[in-house]
Design a protein that fits this description.
- With about 230 residues, this protein is mainly alpha-helical.
- It contains eleven helices and six strands.
- A hairpin with a 2-residue loop joins β5 and β6.
- α5 runs parallel beside α8 and α8 packs parallel to α10.
- The chain is elongated.
Length: about 230
């Protein structure tokens, strides 16, 4: 028996399929399943002698492929997206900050595609993974912040390309890190050990300053009043 790092007990606890059974469950032909496997759209099966065993992970992946095809993605594009998913950051790394006030959001690949119709390209996905917005957990995508996800969705639906939103996000991250450093250095110098306690004050200052900055920006961008 091939050693795939999983015990016999673990295999017994999950459903497994032969090729024909998996194809039937996924609603495709065996020929299509072979083609998908050759294209790398599903991971290799577990081998037991000459028998190939597939499991629910393979079935979920096939359903993801079908859903993305329905949304207009090509097989080549899906392969690139799935490759980017596989290279994504570990979800434990992304969410390894128990003090965070942000709420993570779990999405299927097709739900992500629906949110950003036509904008979920391998390049944009890789950029979001690199920023740390996304991580991969099995067949799910985890976004680090519901507020950031909703903001990105709103901006894209307003007509701003996702690539431009992600570029702005990188700039915002740089400025946010700089602001956090200013406040942390202030507290460490004058009230050491109270950074967590005074965090709400920092948020209030940043929110107020940003609101005032937007006021100034809006005043300078307003068109002059038409003369009577």
């Amino acid at each position: 028996m091939a050693n795939d790092g999983v015990t016999n007990d673990e295999h017994a606890q999950r459903r497994e399929y032969r090729m024909g059974e998996l194809a039937e469950e996924a609603g495709i032909t065996v020929r299509t399943l072979r083609f998908y496997r050759e294209r790398g759209l599903i991971p290799p099966p577990r081998r037991e002698g000459r028998i190939a065993w597939y499991d629910d992970h393979h079935l979920a992946r096939l359903r993801t492929v079908a859903a993305l095809l329905d949304r207009g993605h090509t097989l080549g594009g899906i392969a690139e997206l799935l490759a980017a998913f596989e290279c994504g950051r570990d979800v434990a790394e992304l969410l390894g900050t128990p003090w965070s006030e942000e709420t993570a959001v779990r999405l299927s690949p097709e739900e992500l595609a629906d949110r950003f119709a036509g904008e979920v390209t391998p390049e944009n996905l890789s950029a979001a993974l690199a920023i740390g917005y996304l991580a991969v957990d099995g067949e799910e995508i985890v976004h680090i912040s519901r507020r950031l996800l909703d903001a990105s969705t709103t901006l894209v639906r307003a007509g701003i390309p996702l690539a431009a939103v992600l570029t702005a996000a990188r700039a915002a991250r740089t400025h946010a890190d700089a602001l956090a450093a200013v406040f942390a250095e202030l507290v460490d110098a004058h009230a050491p050990g109270k950074l967590a306690e005074l965090r709400p004050v920092a948020k209030a200052v940043v929110d107020a300053e940003f609101s005032l900055a937007m006021d100034r920006r809006l005043r300078t961008s307003e068109p002059p009043e038409a003369s009577a």
